[in-house]
Amino acid sequence: MESSSDIEGDSDGRNEGGSSSDYRLLGRQVTVHQFMGGGKAADLLLWRRRHLSLWVIVLSTVAWLIFELSGLPFLSVSSDVLLILIIISFVHARISAFRNRQPDSLPELVLSEEMVNSAAASFRIKLNHLLVMAHDVTVGNDFRLFFKVVICLWLLSAVGSYISFCTLVYIGTILSVTIPALYSKYQSKVDKCCGSIHKQLSHHYKLVDESVISRLSWSLSKDKDS
C-alpha cells in the first residue's frame, strides 16, 4: 500500500506536469477575436478581411521604404502627401461641377458625444493607473516595479540605438498584423510552449526574488526607518 507522501508526490507531479498544458495566454473562456474587441479591427488583424490586411502590409512597406530611402522627415512627407490628396480631390470636384456631374459623395466624419465620453473615460483610467505606477517607482514604494521599469527602459534604449523610430513602428505594424493571426491558427501549440516557458521563468524569478530583490527592498526600507 502506498504511503501518503508518495500519493502527495504523485499528485504534485501531475499538477506540475499539467500546469504547462493548461496554460492559456488569453484565459480559458476568451477567444483571440473576443480578446481583441471583436470588431472590424479584430477582423483586420486576424485576416478575416484578407484584402484589407494585405493592403495594410503593402502600404506600411511602401511608407517605410519612402521614409528610409528618401531620408526626408516624417512631417515633411506627410504634409506633401496630404497636400497632393487635397489638390486632387478639389480639382476632381471642380471638374465634376464644370461638367454638371454629381461629384462623389464623401462620408461625414462626426464624433458622437457618447464616443468621446467613452474614450475620455477609458483614457482617464489608464492615465491614472500610469500616474500611480510612476509615483510608486519614483518614491521607492515598489522595488519590483522599479526593477521592471528599469529593465524595459534599458531594452528600449538598446533597441533604439540600432534601429530608427520609423523602422520600429514598421516592425510593430507588421507584427500586429501577423502575430495575432498566427496565434489564432496555432493557439494550442503556442499555449503549450508558453506554459513551459512561463513555468521556468516563474521558477527563476522566484529564486532571484528571494535572493536579491527581497533583500534589497528590505535594506531600503530599513534605511528609510533609520
Structural write-up:
- With 226 residues, the chain is mostly helical.
- Among the domains are: 30 residues; 70 residues; 42 residues.
- Helix content is 79%, strand content 0%.
- It contains nine helices and no strands.
- The longest helix is centred in the last third of the chain and has 39 residues.
- 2% of the residues are buried.
- The N terminus is likely disordered.
- One of its GO terms (cellular component) is endoplasmic reticulum membrane.
- InterPro entries: Reticulon, Reticulon-like.
- One of its GO terms (biological process) is response to bacterium.
Write the layout of secondary structure elements.
Blueprint: H1 4-21, H2 32-35, H3 40-45, H4 50-70, H5 74-98, H6 113-139, H7 143-160, H8 165-185, H9 187-225
Helix pairs in contact: 4-8, 6-7
Organism: Arabis alpina (Alpine rock-cress)
Keywords: Endoplasmic reticulum, Membrane, Transmembrane, Transmembrane helix
Membrane topology: Multi-pass membrane protein
